[in-house]
């Protein structure tokens, strides 16, 4: 049982490593080619019943992106899908690249209330922020390019057929045949499929490189010392003999005395303990 548990853990770890070896990254080389568009927003005042803060609108996209990331990294879904809970106003699917490029596709439901390009970018930015782990300011920049690029290729099925996986044109096709983002807000709810192109980046470990041999460093030879001049008086005075009690001998003597003292204490403790045990035993015999 223990061996099976260890094997299962190792298998899970290996599987997680394989999925972590490739990470989705937005293909900015495509989006950087987008040119600016002019959008028509709804200028009518918003009723307090339908009012949402910027954060609430952004959070709709964040929930969508977080669900896609969960389906990919935890469930390892072949085609991660997010239903846009709890409002179900937006849906998303991730289509992996094959012979052609892959992309995420966000569908805007008929009852979605987004009616300004500012709020549309917030939703796309929130999605990018969570799905790709990108900071909000950078996600805002990419979201602007995503909206422009989708409008540049609005309903250009020939372009998507030539450059992207066929499934990207098929996702949510039962809801709308249009792909891309229209210039007018009137054509957004129920008629929008925003495409976010991405590539898979393989995380590779660089090959180990043997360090180059270091040149041998030889220490410089010390300069030759000049011969010392002989003293005028060559008579050598005898050295004074060392006597007991010098500073060099004090530590050794102290340590020896401490060792003797410790041994003596131990012997005394053993003696008294044995004596007490013998007396106890003798008293017990007398009572019997």
Task: Kindly list the characteristics that best describe this protein.
288 residues, alpha+beta, five-stranded antiparallel β-sheet, 8 helices, 43% helix, disordered N terminus
Protein described:
With 288 residues, the protein is an alpha+beta fold. The chain is 43% helix and 11% strand. The chain has helices spanning 2-20, 28-31, 54-73, 117-131, 136-152, 157-163, 166-170, 250-287, and strands at 22-26, 81-82, 90-95, 102-108, 192-202. Strands 1-5-4-3-2 form a 5-stranded antiparallel β-sheet. Strand 2 (81-82) and strand 3 form a beta hairpin. Residues 1-20 and 228-250 have low confidence and may be disordered.
- Structure class: alpha+beta
Topology as a string of helices (H) and strands (E): HEHHEEEHHHHEH
Shape: elongated
Q: How much β-strand is present in the residues? A: 5-15%
Q: Termini, distance in Å?
A: 58 Å
Got a strand count? Answer: 5
Which segments are poorly predicted (pLDDT under 50) over 5 or more consecutive residues?
1-20, 228-250
The biggest beta sheet reads:
5 strands, antiparallel
Relative helix content: 40-55%
Write down the oligomeric state: single chain
How many whole angstroms does the radius of gyration measure? 42 Å
Average predicted confidence as pLDDT: 81
Q: Quickly count the helices.
A: 8
**Main sheet strand line-up:** 1-5-4-3-2
